[in-house]
Design brief:
Rhopdopsin 7-helix transmembrane proteins, globular, transmembrane helix, mainly alpha, DUF6534, 11 helices
């Protein structure tokens, strides 16, 4: 691997700095969640706390990785070929945060659609991504040089990113499909609410998928530099903020459509003609 500062430690530094900024966004979203969502079940609050703790651990590991490569190993570019142990923990944390985020959205999909097959398929894809990531973690703890890892296991990394992107798109497209069918059967006020939810789903999926695609392209076309590693630093931040944004988005909907959401008799129901189930009131947590 030829040593070029801009595409090695430069790309890594930019990735860590942007990821650190996004960690600040994560902290702000966590504070907002615990301030506004006091009525959420305890397990949801534990989920948010776990995501924040994992994101904090990722920030610490990222800073250690950057410090090691730019300070401790200064003047020894050959040491860049073997990432420090902190990079292995970054991979592990990435897999854990991604699994929590995808599990949350799959649960939302099943709660809303009651479709076992689609939710199950998304669950299988999410489990495959998690399994691939854990396999990469185990391999990385062997402290293999990057060229050796890329030569022998590039397909595993590429497969993980591809499966992750497919999972995200499958979840959001399925959710939007059911929301759109439901939208056609509701009153005008409810259609505005559903439009907001659909837009939120597309936005969260867009950013996670965009980062995944950029990571895949850079890894396949430039595996010998650190640009893909810099982008990889952003992936868990995007996962965490997508989850927290969806949770906090409920409060915004409640403020904008409070009367409709808080009143089960306001006409917000699932229609059996669309879903094959009994008509029943739908509350905010069923939507998002």
């Amino acid at each position: 691997m030829a040593f070029v500062r801009d595409t090695t430690i430069g790309a890594l530094e930019i990735g860590v700095l942007v990821a650190t900024f996004l960690f600040g966004v994560t902290c702000a979203q966590v504070l907002r969640y615990f301030r506004d969502s006091t009525k959420d079940p305890r397990w949801v609050k534990i989920l948010v706390a776990a995501v924040w703790f994992l994101d904090l651990s990722h920030a610490v590991a990222s800073c250690h990785y950057l410090y090691t490569t730019t300070i401790s190993q200064y003047g020894h570019p050959e040491l860049l070929l073997v990432p420090p142990l902190s990079f292995d923990f970054i991979i592990l944390i990435n897999g854990l945060i991604g699994a929590l985020e995808e599990t949350w959205f799959i649960r939302r999909l099943y709660t809303f659609s009651k479709n076992v097959w689609i939710s199950g398929l998304c669950g299988v894809l999410a489990f495959a991504r998690f399994s691939f990531t854990m396999t990469i973690t185990i391999i990385s703890f062997q402290l293999l040089p990057l060229p050796v890892f890329i030569e022998n296991w590039w397909w595993l990394t590429a497969g993980t990113v591809i499966i992750g992107a497919i999972t995200d798109v499958s979840i959001v497209s399925s959710l939007c499909h059911y929301l759109w069918r439901w939208r056609r059967a509701e009153c005008r006020r409810i259609t505005k609410l559903i439009d907001r939810v659909i837009l939120c789903a597309i936005e969260t999926s867009f950013f996670t998928s965009l980062v995944a695609v950029l990571l895949l392209v850079c890894f396949l076309t430039m595996p010998t530099n650190f640009i893909w590693i810099g982008i990889y630093m952003l992936l868990p931040r995007v996962f965490a903020n997508s989850l927290l944004f969806s949770l906090n988005f409920r409060e915004s909907l409640s403020q904008a459509f409070g009367a409709t959401l808080s009143n089960p008799e306001a006409g917000l129901t699932r229609r059996n003609s669309l879903y094959g189930i009994d008509s029943q009131p739908v509350v905010m947590n069923d939507i998002w």
